[in-house]
Specification:
It is built from 13 helices and five strands. It is an alpha/beta fold. The chain folds into two domains: about 1-135, Rossmann fold (3-Layer(aba) Sandwich); about 155-280, no CATH class. It has a five-stranded parallel sheet with strand order 3-2-1-4-5. The mean pLDDT is about 80.
Length: about 280
């Protein structure tokens, strides 16, 4: 009997090099996982993984549709099934379908999702983490071409993260300079110029957020920190903190939270998504 390894979304995001094992192992990617990767949102790097999967199909990677009907289907009353979300349902249905085909397919789901692993265990279906899969297959021959493409995807995501935080830090420094030179700037333009300039600036910031969500989140986080810190500078004294300063600190904290929210949305579709979800 052949063993099929059904790959979860989080595994492909964190360890896309797993696809290089397709020559030795039967790798199955549910259609729902492909859709989940391709719809990660603006700024997502999931499309790179989709392209990598597509290029791995000639090497043996299979795209599978979830079965319409199962003998032992997921029940709404099943507490373990209620913990599943996203593509987990289709992954579970494909695994159950393979398990029902006695003597044909032996399923093993590769996932880092504990809820999915717990559900599969309740159905006596084996699951392993991406780290365990890589450890099991480390001595097998790899498809060098796919391995190199996967490394490029990983490097691209690392550059995306570094560039986003660097751009966010630069933008926050620019905002700081703007704030401390506001009197000079206002004195050089008319009242009408200010009234027209502020909405334009707002539109530019909205465009920045939509196109570069992670960078904008880093920018917001830095601005929030600066807003809160400058209550205590140049003279650090709690006795000087009044209502105005308290509101400024709360405003800074609010901006920090908004920044972290945008960072969380910005890492969606990258290998750092699972780490962010685990921490928060």
């Amino acid at each position: 009997m052949s063993r099929s390894y059904i790959i979860d979304t989080n595994v492909l995001l964190q360890h896309p090099q797993i696809l290089s094992r397709a020559g030795n192992r039967k790798l199955v990617i549910p259609r729902a996982v492909m859709l989940e990767l391709s719809h990660r949102g603006k700024g997502s790097k999931g499309s790179e993984i989709v392209d990598l999967v597509d290029s791995s199909i000639p090497s043996g990677v299979q795209i599978a549709e979830a079965p319409r009907q199962l003998k032992n289907d997921l029940l709404q009353s099943d507490i373990n099934a209620q913990r599943l979300n996203g593509a987990d349902f289709d992954i579970a249905r494909i695994a159950i379908d393979y398990a029902e085909q006695q003597g044909v397919e032996v399923p093993c789901v590769v996932t880092n999702d504990k809820a999915l692993a717990y559900f599969l265990a309740s159905r006596n279906i084996k699951s392993i983490t991406s780290t365990e899969f890589i450890s099991e297959s480390k001595d097998e021959s790899l498809n060098k071409e796919i391995e190199e493409k996967a490394e490029k995807v990983v490097s691209s995501q690392k550059r995306y993260l570094i560039a986003s935080f660097a751009l966010g830090a630069i933008a926050s420094m620019a905002a700081k300079l703007f704030y401390f030179n506001i009197e000079v700037l206002v004195s050089t333009i008319t009242i009408w110029g200010t009234m027209l300039g502020l909405p334009v600036l707002g539109l530019m910031l909205f465009w920045y957020r939509e196109k570069f969500r992670l960078s904008y989140g880093a920018f917001e986080l830095c601005v929030g920190i600066i807003m809160s810190y400058y209550v205590f500078f140049p003279t650090f004294s709690y006795s000087g903190v009044g209502l105005k300063e308290g509101i400024q600190i709360l405003g800074g904290l609010y901006v920090m939270v908004r920044g972290l929210d945008n960072i969380g949305k910005g890492v969606i579709g990258t290998r750092f998504e699972a780490l962010w979800s685990k921490v928060f």
